[in-house]
């Protein structure tokens, strides 16, 4: 193998890629929400209240943003025990969030708005569902992180992976706030 | 290639404190890690290229098949039955098979060849080499990008062999035809496979695009400021931006379509009768899909053409031994095209009942694209003007690109007018327009790139004589095929029809259609000649003996003939000047790595 010299760089390429990926995911939801706006301006649009549990899930995901922020802080201070606890809590909160959304779906369904019902309801299922998948993707990333933290053979000191995960986590959080406000206002 | 090399380069990225040191690795790469799951951007580029070539042969062969039907509607070809089976009973293509062939031809050429095969190949090959990077920002994601593309290819290939045939509602996959399995035989599992394949394809494009952008913004070598980058890199940058921003919107459109197909939702469906029976779906809008589709669909045509533009700019400057004319104007026009690309999608929808008031804006924005396009054409012409042109096959294909881009672009001004579009929409005029400006032009750019960078990829040259034959037959053939289609379109001959015999007014085109089909077969055969040249030259081509065969200024020619993973054996060279110092101060060319002399002014 030949000599490898230092690669000149400004910010870490993985972080950079993440920012572009977040732009990309944002475009996807812009696609959904603009489809929603277009559809809403046409005839036969049925307006209804969002399931109340969505407010609870909002609180959960906001809390999880706080915990992952603390996790990052503790990692940098090398409080590994506290770090492990915090990412576990974050991952659990992520799953609780997804469960809340799922309960929201069944509430919608029991109030006579199934997936194959009016288009306005179908949109809620699809938009919230796709967002939920993105949150669960974050949970998977945290599980990987968790596994790494318990490895004894290799110790990691680079904060980049956890920084990337934290940024992504805040992103899906903000995305949810946007969606919630959007779906509440544009009914 | 080796994980270890990747890991090392990453570690260096992470703590780039220590100076360069030698890594002594004496491990052999296995066949799998070198040729299959390679993480070397150069190998991934070759994988994209060869997969693209395979798809191009299939996609082009499909066009030969349906041209047989269009050119000789009454003839029978018994050999067709032996390859297509019940899709060509008695040697005549069935209507269902015809629609499947047309749909797959579009899908394959637009996405699998001219998107993945073109920007996948050359962005991968050239971005690290020309900006001076060891590899992509994330070699693993890059590898993943290819394998998602491969998976998408497998699924699409599988859909060709299912009993009800592949998707056949047109490459745009408009609902309701694509949303209802009962609507036609080509709307059954074929569409599901099509959507699955395209979802995988979108993932592949996003992974690739992320990498391209973060590599070229972040990992340029010392001295390589943005305005010192070759235009190829600029064009790959804008291509990637377009892809990253528009493919997700397409994906959301596909997700809604999939829900309509399988979850009983009504995003796109309303008041539909199938075989006299009303469906329950209510409240949907088929036009909504068109908005989502064309929001990608229009940027998609620039995703196809921008890399070709970039490579043509580079090849024209190198082969005419002159600096590119109007470097900054070239970047500015790429940027303008990139912005306008997002604002013109509704010009595909002028006849869908779009508000004419809204249409006026889309006409204006569409016609505005003529401005940056004309700037680019002007700059290409002034670049070769009075140049000392070396007519290599790459140079010829670049000049051919400029020719087809002009003639195809001019008809775009007709189609961009909403009032003329009422007459020309969905006629052969549209076919002629986009095949010349996007299909043929993009292929010419791709061929220019392949002939020009083949020595970098394989350390050998392609055969020039076959290259010249390939160029002239393809150029003349392309015009002979598509030029007459303008007349058919102006006469109102609609596209997508299986048989025109019931229209007596179009019988006048019978001979013309047969002529077009014959030329198609000749041009197709010539492309096979190119494929032969390509594969033959990989193994038997004339060997490259010098690092810089074209006397070019850019960094890729400073790497060894057979560069390993990491590209440069020693330090990455530092860049001191722009990429277009040709015929300067009495010198034929000055490499980018050469410092500006004391008596010299920087560009």
TrEMBL record, chain A:
Q: Where in the cell is it found?
A: Cell membrane; Membrane
Please tell me whether the keyword Nucleus is annotated for this protein: no
Annotated SUPFAM superfamilies:
Cytochrome c oxidase subunit III-like (SSF81452)
GO BP terms, alphabetized: aerobic electron transport chain
Q: Name one Pfam family in it.
A: COX3
Q: Which UniProt keywords apply?
A: Membrane, Transmembrane, Transmembrane helix
* Membrane topology, as annotated: Multi-pass membrane protein
Q: Name one GO cellular component term.
A: plasma membrane
The keyword Acetylation is assigned to this record: no
Q: Which Gene3D superfamilies match?
A: Cytochrome c oxidase, subunit III, four-helix bundle
**A GO term for molecular function:** cytochrome-c oxidase activity
Record-stated family: Belongs to the cytochrome c oxidase subunit 3 family.
Q: Mind telling me what this protein is named?
A: Heme-copper oxidase subunit III
Q: Which organism is it from?
A: Chitinophaga solisilvae
Automatic annotation (TrEMBL), chain B:
| Signal sequence residues | none
From the Swiss-Prot or TrEMBL record, state where the protein is found.
Membrane
Q: Where is the composition biased (Polar residues)?
A: 1-12
In terms of one coarse class, where is the protein primarily found? Answer: membrane
Record carries keyword RNA-binding? no
UniProt keywords (A-Z) are: Electron transport, Heme, Iron, Membrane, Metal-binding, Respiratory chain, Transmembrane, Transmembrane helix, Transport
Pfam families reported for this sequence: COX1
A single GO cellular-component term from the record reads: membrane
> What biological process terms from GO does the record include?
aerobic respiration; electron transport coupled proton transport; respiratory electron transport chain
UniProt-annotated stretches for the region Disordered? 1-23
A GO molecular-function term, please? cytochrome-c oxidase activity
Q: What is the membrane topology here?
A: Multi-pass membrane protein
Give TM regions: 48-70, 97-122, 143-162, 193-213, 233-259, 301-318, 325-345, 357-382, 394-416, 428-454, 466-485, 514-536
Q: Which top-rank group of organisms is this from?
A: Bacteria
Sequence similarity? Belongs to the heme-copper respiratory oxidase family.
Q: What is this protein called?
A: Cytochrome c oxidase subunit I
In its UniProt entry, the species of origin is given as: Chitinophaga solisilvae
